[in-house]
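Review this today:
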Amino acid sequence: MNSLNRRQVLASAAAVAAGAGRTGFSAGPAATEFQFNYIVGSCMYGYLYLGEILPEVAKCGSRHLDIWPKSHGNQREQLADMGEELFASLLKKHDVSLGCITQYKLGPFGLQNEMRIAQRLGCQTMVTGGSGPRNLKGAELKKAVGDFLEKMKPHLEVAEETGVTIAIENHVNNLIDSPDSLKYLAELRPSENIGIALAPYHLPQDAELIAQLVKDLGNATKVFYAWEHGDGCVKRLPKAQELLQLPAYGPLDFGPVVQALVDVNFSGWTEIFMHPVPRGIPIMETAAQVTAEINKSRTYLSEQLSAVTGGM
């Protein structure tokens, strides 16, 4: 992204934030049918109290929350502490719905009780990682993905019963971590209740490759993380370098990726995302500052969408 675009992003972020609190506000231009369906990750706000996070959701152009447990956030633990009734009342008070529960610790074979909680709270998406051997290729990889999906069948029965879709992220050092493994998952999945949470951070930072993968996966993708690698998230860095994980800051050109999302008419969640170091802290010091950073990336994505659809 060139410097002119960066200046445009920062200059127009305030305009986005000013309109973001309106019900139904979207990043996409009004003239196009395609719009990003934004969801806000609770872990972007670290361990802040849900009562502080929920008012920020509308300001981020969304009405939906993705709730994370420790160590990235602790809002799933907050839910457990306050109980489902009080949690639901907090959501209602702020006109927010629970769109996703992220649960890596439980793994793909430990989600049955969590799916029943999700059903009671009206949540239809759950993100976790894939389980199985690593560093496979070709026929061996395809077989391992097939074996994983076979083991998932009892859990997918519960997913179908509860109306929950399990989205498997291409997290590094997992069975499902490469473009080929994602394509095998999309090809072999035995149920619409399993899909993909696509994280560009964990892929080669090649915009055309990521865009082609979006097209190859089609409607199997249920969550798209607007998240690039930048300088990474495994060691402490100056904040300016850490923020390079966010669209509008890092070097990845999201234009081809947005074009691909439009081409497949992507209707899943879009989550503007990054990880801070250490985990559990907000990406910025205050909730308002976190929201401002999310909105800078949202402005950038809106500009890419306008360029793709001719909305500008």
